[in-house]
């Protein structure tokens, strides 16, 4: 074989080794974008969901149905919220970090919102709840200067704040 033919063959094989996977990738991407488009996603929206770590159409649909976009959903997903739970926390007035903290101590969105409305910190809410108080019962005791332990003792003795 002539040296120039060998070089030409090498260049053609090298070019094909790059172009074939590249073209297959483009075809696959365009096919997926069309599939997402069947569910109302514009091509750039689809790419935005993908860039933000949500690559499955059904998952993006669940997040979108709960009112989340491709910029907001991933931060909730990273904290291991499902779309419905994230919506409940968001409606209760929490951002993702606040929701994650309150959830870590087994508060529901509505319970956490009541504690926050009563001007309790997370630590105070945990302490008062541990002693059997809800946000409405704990408020008057706290306002009179009682600690959760003292208030629980007084409450068991039949006293009111």
Query: Count the strands?
Result: 0
Percent helix, as a range, is: over 70%
Low-confidence stretches: none
Q: Assign the structural class, choosing from mainly alpha, mainly beta, alpha/beta, alpha+beta, or little secondary structure.
A: mainly alpha
What's the order of the H and E elements? HHHHHHHHHH
Query: Judging from the principal axes of the Cα atoms, what is the shape?
Result: rod-shaped
What's the oligomerization state? single chain
Query: Taking Cα atoms only, what radius of gyration do you get, to the nearest Å?
Result: 28 Å
What does this protein structure show overall?
This protein has about 160 residues and is mostly helical. It has a domain at about 10-80. About 70% of the residues lie in helices and about 0% in strands. It contains 10 helices and no strands. It has helices at about 5-35, 45-50, 55-65, 75-80, 85-90, 95-105, 110-115, 120-130, 135-145, 150-155. The radius of gyration is 28 Å and the shape is rod-shaped. The N and C termini lie far apart (about 100 Å).
């Amino acid at each position: 074989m002539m040296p120039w033919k060998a070089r030409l063959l090498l260049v053609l094989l090298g070019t094909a080794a790059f172009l074939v996977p590249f073209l297959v990738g483009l075809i696959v991407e365009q096919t997926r974008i069309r599939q997402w488009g069947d569910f109302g996603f514009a091509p750039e929206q689809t790419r935005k969901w993908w860039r933000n770590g949500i690559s499955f159409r059904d998952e993006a649909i669940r997040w979108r149905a709960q009112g989340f976009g491709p910029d907001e959903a991933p931060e909730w997903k990273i904290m291991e919220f499902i779309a419905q739970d994230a919506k409940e926390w968001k409606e209760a007035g929490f951002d993702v970090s606040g929701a994650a903290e309150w959830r870590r101590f087994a508060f529901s969105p509505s319970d956490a919102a009541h504690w926050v409305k009563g001007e309790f910190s997370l630590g105070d809410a945990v302490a008062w709840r541990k002693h059997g108080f809800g946000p409405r019962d704990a408020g008057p005791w706290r306002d009179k200067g009682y600690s959760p332990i003292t208030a629980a003792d007084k409450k068991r003795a039949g006293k009111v704040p």
